[in-house]
Amino acid sequence: MTAGRVLTAAAVLAAALLLVTGALPARAALQLADRTIPILVFVAAMTVVTELLEAAGLFHRVAYGVARLARGRTPVLWLLVALLGVVTTALFSLDTTAVLLTPVVVVVARACGLPVTPFALLCIMLANTGSLFLPVSNLTNLLAQHRLSWSPGAFLLAAGLPAVVACVVPVAVLTLVYRRAVTGTYTPPASRPLADPVLLRISQVTVAVLMVALVSGMPVWIPAVAAATVLLVATSRRTRVIPSPRLVPWRILLLTTALFVAVETVHARGLDAALQSAATGGRDAGSLALLAALAAVSANVANNLPAYLLLEPAAGADAARLLALLIGVNVGPLVTPWASLATMLWHRRLTTLGESVSWGRFAAIGAVIAVLTVAACVLALALVPPA
Questions:
Q1: Alpha helices (H) in 285-334, listed in sequence order
Q2: Which domain holds residue 209?
Q3: What is the pLDDT of residues 360-378, one digit of tens each?
Q4: By CB atoms within 10 Å of each CB, which of 24, 105, 236, 240 scores lowest?
Q5: Residue 16 lies in a domain
Q6: Domain assignment present for 8
Q7: Using one digit for the tens of pLDDT, what is the confidence trace for 241-288?
Q8: Radius of gyration of the chain from its Cα atoms, rounded to whole angstroms
Q9: Cα torsion 378, 383, 384, 387: sign
């Protein structure tokens, strides 16, 4: 059994014990289930959607199209890849960018004869920092949206300026660090032939409809499940291959559920009093900065999901404070490997592709980006706070 499976099994067992022994009261457990089950269903459905889109060749099609669109100009390609990373993260989630877009960008960089490391780091940094735009961009956003009962449009309006800043700063830092690697020209690669153009068109239409539905205001799990169903049927009929249940990220769902249970137990038993006291404050710039900083540090010490759940009571129902918390847990986890699940998945994909980015380099660059980006985002939030 791998280390990941052992960790998941241990976490699930611990969560089961908390429920069975009553450490987490039944009423609190039911409230937790009511809040989190729709989110977990959404995560499962969107994972199936993105895996099937990758199988249909959509991500490769877009990435190679971007390489040709840049017409051999490396700085233009760099900016287009950054834009692609932001759009993918905003519309599909940070895990999609880490797991599916990163390998495609690596393949494109190789095909163009360009160094892989700058593009790989660009993908993972924007996967994290670009996840402030919409509720679907990050699991933490969905939790905050549920707390505030915001529509996707209201969320985008409130988080818009910090979200833009969160994308600009990492791109600027990475451009400065890798300024020699992202200049010059390259020979645009030829795209690979499509295995099934009809399946690709079905995928494109499904994505277009899904994107509209996700920002329509309806519960996001409904269009996600519908899109997954359409793609499952289309894939099985066009390829005559029945998609595997392994498309569903069972381990991630189980581990996430266990984290939910553990953190809710901490809340129910009042074991987080000291942390809540430290994070208490108003919506002035200093208080927002303190909350965001505590969130970023907590995310790098533990993980961004439990960090959000632990500090959510300190944010309360105040929109500005909740956004400061999201800035910390979304933008800040760029230093330790375990701070964001997307980062761990990204590194695993790079390893399977034969690429290597040392954790030392990742931590050094990530720390600079995290500090500068969190500070800039909080400043933007303080200048234009939500109502």
A1: 285-301, 304-315, 319-326
A2: 32-383
A3: 999 999 999 999 999 999 9
A4: 240
A5: no
A6: no
A7: 677 788 887 887 888 888 888 888 887 887 777 777 777 788 889 999
A8: 21
A9: positive
